[in-house]
């Protein structure tokens, strides 16, 4: 059940009615049933996997709370091993088997299995692991009511593609729930419509350009052609994922839950360090708090810091997908982050006349990384990189009206960066707010692709 379908909005309307019109004591049950129905709409049999991991981590947290010493550690290890085993089997078995087959010179499909990846497994396992680790560290109390914990894991707005919500962020809303204020309702509606517009009007349009290029690289030679195809994908993945996040945050807000910001205009970043403070923020802080710091962080000298950065980003790349392309993508960003630390880059200088040069350079470096993220194979990745820096010019695949759309969104991003117009719009007079809503609906009607529902990019992770 995709967010960008009529079926989802009918489902959400029913959930809202049952949630607010029914007795308050039923609300958690309504959300839990709705969340499991939402998950089962993808593949009903995988609900058993979700229930199994939920039970393991629920009891592991209670075990940690009631134990001491090695027993507590054993409970933590049991939880982490279960989550990583399920994630490893479903997501990485065929990748590892394929790599082993190549090393041993065996037939291509030896040891390979027909595995269907459970939707959202990367997100809900990370969310569940963070809860158990927080309980182990004494930063979170173990949840006693199993239905409360099950709702935390399965809550449908962010179940499939995040943001990765911390337990303390979720349970403060669940245990002290209050009706959304008028401004929160307006913000939730606006975020939901903005997210849908980003997806349907912008991301899906640029997806067509990116697909045209990456599906037949050899037929589209030239540096301008390659850069236009890669930039189209950069715009697609940003509008696609940030659009989903906007919808998730907006939908949750209409139900009285406050999710953390997951994107903060990442293509205005002045360096790669700044980019990762703006892009997929919930994953960045997860990797920092549960992997980078656990490895030692910046303690132990510079070499260990660079090692920890590289390991964190390599594993972050592998989290996105089971292929060497994603490993290289993660390693590429890890190397850039390390180089910036060595050079002392990382401090913003908003008043500097070279700010926009930094922004353009950072965007170019990010686009080079996106090649490995989007290309189907390593061979395709290097073919694209070769074309991007070739002397043959080629043609621009992005249509003029699409360039105008990108320019408008850039101006809006700069205005939000400087003035924070979104909050101003929420608090603006009713006529101004209503005009914005009508404009978004008009864009959806005029520019939204018809007859074709394009899945969100991050649903595959």
The total count of helices amounts to 19
Write down the domain tally: 2
Helix content: 55-70%
Radius of gyration: 23 Å
Largest sheet: none
How does the helix and strand content classify structurally? mainly alpha
The number of strands is 0
Average pLDDT score: 90
Amino-to-carboxy terminus distance: 16 Å
| SSE pattern | HHHHHHHHHHHHHHHHHHH
Shape: globular
Query: Which regions have little confidence, pLDDT < 50, spanning 5+ residues?
Result: none
Key features?
461 residues; 19 helices; 0% strand; 2 domains
Walkthrough of the structure:
The chain contains 19 helices and no strands. The chain has 461 residues and is an all-alpha fold. 38% of the residues are buried. Helix 3 (47-65) crosses helix 6 and helix 4 (70-104) packs antiparallel against helix 5 (121-137). The two termini are 16 Å apart. The chain is globular, with a radius of gyration of 23 Å. It has 2 domains: 6-180, no CATH class; 183-447, no CATH class. The longest helix is centred in the first third of the chain and has 35 residues, at 70-104. Helices cover 70% and strands 0% of the residues. The protein has helices at 6-21, 27-40, 47-65, 70-104, 121-137, 146-154, 156-159, 167-175, 182-214, 223-254, 272-276, 281-295, 302-320, 324-343, 355-374, 378-388, 400-419, 421-426, 430-447.
């Amino acid at each position: 059940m995709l967010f960008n379908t009529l079926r989802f909005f009918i489902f959400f309307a029913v959930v809202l009615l049952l949630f607010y019109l029914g007795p308050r004591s039923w609300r958690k049950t309504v959300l839990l049933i709705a969340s499991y129905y939402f998950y089962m709409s993808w593949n009903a049999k995988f609900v058993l996997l979700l229930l199994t991991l939920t039970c393991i981590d629920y009891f592991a947290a209670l075990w940690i709370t009631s134990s001491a010493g090695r027993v507590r550690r054993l409970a933590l290890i049991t939880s982490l091993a279960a989550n990583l085993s399920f994630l490893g089997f479903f997501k990485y078995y065929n990748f590892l088997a394929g790599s082993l087959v190549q090393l041993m010179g065996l037939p291509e499909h030896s040891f390979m299995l027909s595995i269907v990846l459970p939707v959202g497994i990367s997100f809900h396992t990370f969310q569940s692991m963070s809860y158990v680790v927080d309980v182990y560290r004494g930063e979170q109390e173990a949840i006693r009511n199993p239905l409360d914990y099950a709702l935390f894991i399965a809550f449908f707005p962010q179940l499939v593609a995040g943001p990765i919500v911390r337990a303390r962020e979720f349970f403060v809303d669940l245990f002290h729930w209050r009706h959304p204020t008028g401004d929160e309702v307006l913000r939730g509606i606006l975020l939901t419509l903005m997210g849908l517009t980003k997806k349907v009007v912008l991301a899906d349009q640029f997806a067509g350009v990116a697909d045209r290029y990456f599906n037949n690289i050899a037929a589209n030679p030239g540096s301008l052609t390659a850069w236009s195809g890669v930039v189209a994908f950069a715009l697609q993945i940003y509008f696609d994922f940030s659009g989903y996040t906007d919808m998730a945050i907006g939908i949750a807000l209409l139900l009285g839950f406050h999710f953390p910001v997951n994107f903060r205009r990442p293509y205005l970043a002045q360096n790669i360090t700044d980019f990762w403070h703006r892009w997929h923020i919930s994953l960045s802080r997860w990797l920092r708090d549960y992997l980078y710091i656990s490895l030692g962080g910046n303690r132990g000298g510079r070499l260990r810091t660079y090692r920890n950065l590289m390991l964190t980003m390599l594993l972050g790349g592998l989290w996105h997908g089971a292929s060497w392309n994603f490993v290289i993508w993660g390693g590429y960003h890890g190397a850039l982050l390390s180089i910036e630390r060595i050079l002392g880059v990382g401090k913003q200088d908003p008043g500097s006349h070279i700010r926009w040069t930094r922004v353009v350079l950072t965007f170019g470096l990010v686009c080079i990384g996106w090649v490995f993220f989007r290309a189907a194979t390593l061979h395709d990745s290097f073919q694209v990189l070769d074309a991007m820096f070739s002397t043959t010019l080629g043609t621009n695949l992005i249509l003029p009206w699409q360039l105008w759309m990108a320019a408008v969104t850039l101006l809006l991003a700069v205005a939000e960066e400087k003035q924070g117009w979104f909050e101003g719009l929420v608090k603006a007079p009713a006529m101004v707010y209503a005009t914005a809503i009508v404009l978004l609906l008009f864009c959806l009607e005029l520019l939204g692709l018809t007859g074709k529902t394009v899945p969100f990019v991050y649903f595959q992770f």
